[in-house]
Amino acid sequence: MVRYVYDFTEGGRDMAGLLGGKGANLAEMTRMGLPVPPGFTVTTEACRAFLATGTEPDGLAREISEHLTVLEQVAGRRLGQPDDPLLLSVRSGARFSMPGMMETILDIGLGDDSVLGLAKTSGNERFAWDSYRRLVQMFGSTVMGVDSSVFEQAMTQLKDLRGAPDDLHLDAGDLAQLVETYKNLIKHETGEDFPQLPAEQLRRAVLAVFESWNGERARLYRRREHIPDDLGTAVNVQTMVFGNLGPDSGSGVAFTRDPATGARGVYGDYLSNAQGEDVVAGIRNTVPLDELGRLNPEAFAQLRDHMRTLETHYRDLCDIEFTIERGKLWMLQTRVGKRTAEAAFAIAAELVDEDLITPDEGLARVSGDGLARLMFPRFDTAAVGQALAHGIPASPGAAVGAAVFDSAEAVRRAAAGEKVVLVRQETTPDDLPGMVAAQAVLTSRGGKTSHAAVVARGMGKVCVCGAEEITVDPQGRRFLVGGTVVEEGTVLSVDGSEGAVYPGAAPLVDSAVMRYFETDERGERSAGLVDAVARAMQQADGIRRLGVRANADTPEDAARARRFGAEGIGLCRTEHMFLGDRRQLVEAMILARTDTERERALAALLPLQRQDFVGILEAMDGLPVTIRLLDPPLHEFLPDRTELAVRIAAAEAHGNPPSAHDAELLDAVNRMHEENPMLGLRGVRLGLVAPGLVAMQVRAIAEAVVDRKRAGGDPQAEIMVPLIDTVEELRLVREEVEQVLAEVSKASGVPIQCPVGTMIELPRAALTAGRIAEEAQFFSFGTNDLTQTTWGFSRDDVEAAFFSAYLDKGIFKVSPFETIDREGVGRLVEIAVAEGRAARPGLKIGVCGEHGGDPDSVHFFHAAGLDYVSCSPFRVPVARLEAGRAAL
Ligand code: ADP
Ligand code: MG
Ligand code: MG
Fold it and tell me: What structural domains and CATH numbers belong to the chain?
């Protein structure tokens, strides 16, 4: 029989799928003997069953009531007992942490009678009414669907009436009055009374948590984080402990290390005389956790103790939610904490040093995406000038954008292509779309664990929070700082690493990590972050099986790629070499009417191309350089058809007939026009019909090799033929290539070894890879074209047109141009690898599409048995790191 409920004493951290992360970790802490208020967890399975059918699964109610009885026995109080009620929290908690995305309801079990009992037994009337008004408010909004602003307004009104600066200044009588107001508001808004029966409160709260799985902000968050929609949430029902019992009580959040930098020490926020939600909600300003050491040294010492225990147990950064009830510490939540990329590298290195994890585990804890983020530029501190405001550096990086004051405006401007900074007093889950749209988030309240900070860090978005000098005026669409008014649309520079905001667009400089890659990796060990990155890179390089090359077309790019650790060039495109001044020569070649004219044009191109190749081969001396023969359709080198036609027509209108050259050009452009150039005369097709082109390019390569050899170099050129469909094409081109190589070799007396291979970028090529391998000395997957032709859509045309709709509908989890589509394109890759190597054992196979620098795709290429990936120079470190992680 299925079981839907587990006591905290029965679960453990390995049961997160069933109990959710929160439930599994509550159980783990319970088993570790940490002070966790007793409770039980309703499984995600129950949630899935409920969401599928709309009704509670059979047996759930009975199981809950059985477990409740146990809680009541332990507590010696019953739910709803009028003279001394047991109170419960009902807390969401999914497999993957979704902070603040779903619902939690506190103080379940209070009613008009029991609130009096609670007042009496606690000896604190204010506390009892405060708890009751919290329940009515949370239940009213979460379970009964009343807009939470309705309650907030009533609260604000009362505070204004009493002249109370915050909720602490409302007394028991005020709070009792507020409860009445809230109850009336609920009746007014829903036509229903606030339910007095504790059992009904509990049941409805559990179902509301189930339903919050499908709430709008939870869905949005899942889509962004690629969390599947069908997991469901668990529900934790837990005995309440009270942080709102007076000044010797309070609630807080803590990290075992700084989640922004990874620095060791105790980080967090504490709020005295408050229930948990207040801490992140920014209702009142929190104090740094250290302050707790002064307020309550004993509880603080205990907390630090438990933090150490947890970090050693989980062998990782933990984040913790706790409450102190009249001096006694209770642990309410822990999990392996989210962290910035910087902190991830720093913590991994430190945990290795502390022998808590192995170097391989350290490598598993960092990521290529994180590394890419650390390579982003930062603001040039020497040039930024005076900061407008300072706040807490909650999520690092540098971002520039126009100030906006609400989520909708952020979304609107971002959709129009503008970069924006979302400025709020504090954020709530309703601000999520705006945070997604913004480059950075700036808040005037809240600490490192505020909603803004946690969510921004999770997204890798720049965030400065708690910038208390600024006063945000969302109605006026502006903020005030010192004597300055900053209106909507004003450009700001937000430095999430330093916690500063600057007016205007501040200049950027390379990050320390980028400088490290740019200079000498094998130099002395530098401190901190750079050292941590260096160690992860070393670990990755030590175990990776995939080679990493770069896509580079110039000596400068080649040299940079080499500094970044590229082991050669996997794709050297030649089309860029035909642009600029050389366009004229290409034009002459295309327009040539006689063999002599064409040969003259090609002969003029030859030395220029040779020089290009000499430079690149020199920069990559000793390492392979895969040069792709010309790929794009020739008309790309001619003027735009419409522009040319308009120019000629305009001239004619002024009585000037077109020049012979223009007429000729227009004729050629018209002749060569293609409806689908992507599927037209390009790649090998061009080489086979444009006489002399391949020969010229190969001659340039061969002569460059000779040049380099004569200069004492070690050139390793490889010739790659693009867009092969069938082995016949490759055979014909290869004959021509070999002939030219032989000629140059003979004429120069220098032997030339230059493998000739092909791109595999059309489905037909992948499916006939066994045949193609007869002629190909290597394969390189061109996954951009292979994705386009496999799916039958052109990236340039469709990404803007319908990809966002496809992502919304869940047809893609991520664009197939970003991450390789394993199921379709990946299948073709696997077929081609298997059949290619069957025909030619040991066939060298790489990939040179942009997927070569995408972490997830790198893992796929590793598993598919490729020899190397090739990506843009800046992605080379990312690919190295992920290739290492793939080999773990
Ligand atoms: P979230 O997933 O959004 O963090 P939680 O379920 O952790 O939501 O609840 C939010 C806060 O409510 C907790 O941090 C804690 O302070 C408070 N809370 C939850 N359960 C209890 C409890 N049993 N006793 C006291 N406070 C609680
Ligand atoms: Mg929590
Ligand atoms: Mg291609």
Answer: 250-336 (3.30.470.20), 378-509 (3.50.30.10), 544-633+674-886 (3.20.20.60)
